[in-house]
User: What shape does this take?
Amino acid sequence: MSADARPASDARHAWSQLARQDPARRSAPDRIADFLEIYGFYDEVAAREQASRCVQCPEPTCVAGCPLGTNIPEWLALTAEGHFSAAAQALQAGGNLPEICARVCPADHLCEAECVINGQAQPVSIWAVEQFLNEYAFAHGLVQPDVAPPNGRHVAVIGAGPGGLACADGLVRRGYAVTIFDHRPQPGGLLVYATPEFHLQRSIVERRVDLLRRQGVNFRLADAEAEHTPLTLLLEDFDAVYLALGAKQPRTLDAPGHELDGVHQAVPFLLQAGTDSAAAKALVGGKHVAVIGGGDTAIDCARAAVRSGADSVAVVYRRDEASLPAMRRDIDAALEEEVRFLFQAFPISFIGRPPGVLTGLQLVRTEPGPLGADGRRWFVPTATSFSLVADVAFLALGFDPAPLPADSPWQALARTPQGAFQVDARQMTSLPGVFAGGDLVRGPCTALHAVRDARQAVAGIDAFLATRTDSSEPKER
Ligand code: SF4
Assistant: This one.
């Protein structure tokens, strides 16, 4: 049945009659030859059909599962009825950087995990309808610079990662002038510097940055001065400041042999693979690669190693397959790309040969242990050990908060015992007019949570400046 012929009322029961169908992905041999995105997009018929599987819950659990509280049923209903422009506009208006958030969102752990039809059938393919709508919006000229008349206020945003970009987007939509500072030469933060293009193509980030520029956002890149300027001085030039720098550092593994030549962190390799393919190929080409970890960074690293010519790639994860925190669609893609998974295994040492070159890993089997405080089951080592041949090992063990440099002017801000900045419900720090979000407040967090904090901060800055009773003049020049 064509999309136009199907009555809209079918949508209430479509989930039981229509299987979930994700967009096709390129064949593994095709996609490992480059770093580009692997999924296509729904056509209009498929988008309508898949959106029609939503039953329009009166109290949608998918929304509760979304860190951004996106009004998912609204644009699913509009899509199911074929009102693509209205659906795309609802999605664009409901958030910041939606086309970027959709690409890095682990939907299978969030909204789709909470979808009410889960368990009776496959959940609604929310992520793929969202991708369709975002690209529909750009293709049909529905995404235009969105600004309000200038309100005379000027805000400095420090950090051009997802939180900083989202904050700037929200502020210019309220009439603020915004200057973003970042010490890196390109905007995007980890979206650009640690996310491989098969996850998020640079062109997608550049498209959004170009839009922000057309909205009047001023970028001061390769410029660390603002990070080293006392906040009270910044507040002489700006009405408010939003601190959005990433502040995470990769965890290490202090096992014997960790200093061997061939043991590396995963994040620098992801950066290298995305910016200097010759160096990445020189590092892993023709080699046996082991990646230790089970999150998105581990799977990204494994797939980047495949694309960089590794002879074999194995992911070593201490828990079982069901516990893998990475996105399911990425795990499936990795399996198709011949990444091997070793579950319930943990390295106890790195093995080398003179003069200090890695040749393998010594691993122990693990078995399920007691439940941890986070509700996840511990996996404890057993007496069974075995070895794995590896010329290169990448550590992808998660992140810890990065300590604030001793000479940072931000040391003056109140912090929690864990070192995070204390903020109130408006995201304002202990210094009035200075706001913060993302890693600096939460510890290592996702891009989605950074965007959520930024949205909260936009409302907070607006409320703070609207009620300020001092006599300071607006700082826009
Ligand atoms: Fe639709 Fe699932 Fe959300 Fe219910 S939980 S509104 S079925 S997407």
Summary: The longest strand covers residues 357-371. Residues 26 and 228 are 46 Å apart (CA to CA). The two ends are 59 Å apart (CA to CA).
